[in-house]
Design brief:
globular, six-stranded antiparallel beta sheet, 2 domains, about 425 residues, about 15% strand, alpha+beta, 16 strands
Amino acid sequence: MTHQLHLSRSVICICIDKTGQSPTLFMRAACRRMETRNNTYIKMRTHIGTASINKKVTMNYNNAAYRNLAKKYSLEAMIGPDEGESLLLELLVHCFTIEEAELAAHLPIFYKTHTLEKVARTVGKEPADIKPLLDAMVSRGVIRGRGKGYAHLPILPGMFENVLMDNLDTPWHREFARIANRLYETGYVRKYLEHPTRVVRTVPLNLEQGPAGTAVDPDRVEQMIRSHDLMAVLNNCQCRHARHLEGQECKRADRLDGCFAFGNIATLYIDRGGARAVDRDSMRSIVKDRISKNLTFFAGNVAAGSANQICTCCECCCHMLGQIIGVDPGLIVTTPKFRAVVNEDRCTDCGRCLAPCNLRAHTMEGKRHRYDPSRCVGCGLCVRACPAAAIDMFETDGYRKPAADLKRLAVRLAPAKIMAVIKGKLVRK
């Protein structure tokens, strides 16, 4: 159900989501937006660690600083929502003061950085004058500012994880989580799924044997563990933490069950203070624990030896899974090497496979089990759960080996994406 609130020249759409949130809460949010038309000032107290920052935030969505910043966050390269999205503007007002927004509008997007000196030259100010502002934004996690320079992060993935990885629970963080959750629940990322991206892949369980004695997958979790000397576990799962900040707890796992990182990516998180290094035996133990909680493992679609990250996802909290469930999984997840196949003759319709499946490939129609192979990503959780051994893993058609590394993955995805953009421009003309 959608309510439209007309505010002179603007229209705000308030959507009641599947969680059953009451219309009253949405009307309160609408009132906050109405206050911005009158340039209402709201005093907010932000706690960063033990420090406290008192600031006045002008909730004026027509302010040029925020409008310019919204244009940057709406870019396709930033995987952003439409620049006129009210929740995007609300998020930017929450994360940046007007002075910070004016400065941030001159920062590059995430794939490159600008040094302090270059940012200063761009805005025509002295480095010493802008450094406190830049460092304040870095400390809150709303921009990237470590290493060679400063840059913007996409909202999700990017800013969302950077802000919440410190596991803080303050009024400021709770409001950030609320806005970010509602923004992502609008489903804006689906506009980028008109053409398959297949940027991620499933990392299946360590199931040693499949049909006829064949290995279930040559690139299981164990191979990633063996391929890297440095690996880390993030301090928390930012998706579960965001739900926790809104008073919702994960049905499968603990919010401290953070993602895994390997190679250079592990180094970045450890240096940031957002993860702890672990050895191979510890990682294997943690993997077993996550499997016992029926979490699905997703990674970038690159080879086991490449720097990478594994997200251990649940359908109740994970933002990416929420989008995958709502569309064809093949738009985001690459074709797995193996998919589950159900032996209907052996199936007892017990329904034990439903709970572990985060993609809802297994359902019950009355008292009969139903299986949709198009929704299977090859994680293997259902094989483990079936007491009748009625589910096995078989090779699929269309499998393509992962790219060697992230750069080669980008090259692999670029041609189709470029052609899609060209065709779109021709059609619009």
